[in-house]
């Protein structure tokens, strides 16, 4: 089921309904006939937290829309979808371990819903892969991390807006400290032999991502 991006002029009820249909279809694909509604509501609240500027429902919807074009390449597409739902569920810029907390929450919800343990283990690994600090182990992890990093290869104006959103999420950090930390993160991506693991995302985003990152690094180093 293709995710439809939420728009500012969409009626709130329509937005909830579209998200809920996708949520229910994802759980059905995992063999769960009654999707956990409480977790759905809690996730929406999490992605709407006021300290978020980039890691919002807009980011989630963008990820799900990219997955729609890559589902045929996934080994377990509904596992990838649910991992995307949860991958930024816990997002506190002042703390470490957000991905682990998000993955653990997914495990708790999926186990309560009766999802198979093998599937739960794979989804936990999928969320943990979004730390982007180690080589991926499975093909589905490659697709998920490429989706999560797609913003790096966005059009220049969108990438620049993303960088501004990340700065707002770290508004508490003094300028020099933020610039140094952000530059380290971006340089690490630029130093990779390839930012994107899968051929599809590499063809689509690699060149633009490298240009965007180089431009951002130049600004940070001024």
Helix/strand layout:
Layout: H1 12-29, H2 37-47, H3 57-68, H4 77-86, H5 98-113, H6 117-129, H7 139-148, H8 156-169, H9 175-190, H10 199-220
Helix pairs in contact: 1-4, 3-4, 4-6, 4-7, 5-6, 6-7, 9-10
| Whole-number total of structural domains | 2
Shape category: globular
End-to-end span in angstroms?
45 Å
Major sheet: none
Order of SSEs = HHHHHHHHHH
The residue fraction in helices comes out at 55-70%
The radius of gyration is 17 Å
Task: Name the poorly predicted regions.
Answer: 1-11
Strand content: under 5%
Give the integer mean of the pLDDT values: 94
Would you give an account of this structure?
The protein is an all-alpha fold and 222 residues long. It has 2 domains: 1-133, no CATH class; 149-222, no CATH class. Helix content is 64%, strand content 0%. The chain has helices at 12-29, 37-47, 57-68, 77-86, 98-113, 117-129, 139-148, 156-169, 175-190, 199-220. The longest helix has 22 residues, at 199-220. One of its GO terms (molecular function) is hydrolase activity. Keywords: Hydrolase.
Note the main attributes of this structure.
single chain; 222 residues; mainly alpha; 2 domains; 10 helices; 64% helix; disordered N terminus
Brief summary:
With 222 residues, this protein is mostly helical. The chain is 64% helix and 0% strand.
